[in-house]
User: What shape does this take?
Amino acid sequence: MVARNGCLCSLSFKGWRLLIGKKDRNNEQKNKQDVLKQVKMRFLYPARMEKWILRTIGVLDDQWVALVNNWFTTQSQDISEANRINCAKRKATHTSGTKSFAQNREDMREQDPEKKYPHRAVLYINTHKSNITKNTNPHVVALKELLVQQPSLADTSHGKVAWKGDALSQILGEEKPGHIHGLGLVPNPDQVFGGST
Assistant: This one.
C-alpha cells in the first residue's frame, strides 16, 4: 500500500532516511507521518483484499527512469561489483533465515533432554543445511561424515562447545582473528577455547 503510492513513497530517494527526513525540532518528518498514517488506516483487512494487496506495484514512469539511471551511475556500479566479488568469496551461506545463531543455539538447547548447549559443529550443520533430504553445502557433508567417524570431536559432555582441533575447525580451518565459527561475532576466542561456554 505504501510502496504502491509513488507520491507517498517515491523511488527517487536513494535511502529511507532521505525519505523520512532528519529528526529535529524544525522538521516535522511529514513523509514519515503520512506513511505511518497509511499503515495505521489499513493494518486490519479482510481476507478477500489479499489479492489487491499482492498485485503489482505500478511504479511511476519518471521515478522508474530515475531509479534505473541511479543503477547505472559509476558509484552504484562500483558498489555492485564489490558486492559481487565479496559474494564470490563466501565459502558457505547459512540457511537459518533471520533467526540468529544464538537463538538457534538456545532452541537446540531447549530441545535437548539434558538441556545442554549443542557443539558448534552440530549448530553449523543445523544452520547450513539446504533442506532436510539434500545437502549442497560440501562443508556440511564433510562435517557429518567426520562426526560419524569420530563423534568425540563434537562431544559436549564436559561443558565445552568449542575447542582447538574440534570437528568444525578441522573442516573449516583456522579461525579468523577475533571470531569463532558457529558462535557469531561476540565470543572472544581466548575465552571460549580456554574455558566452558
About this structure: Residues 16-89 form one domain. The mean pLDDT is 75.
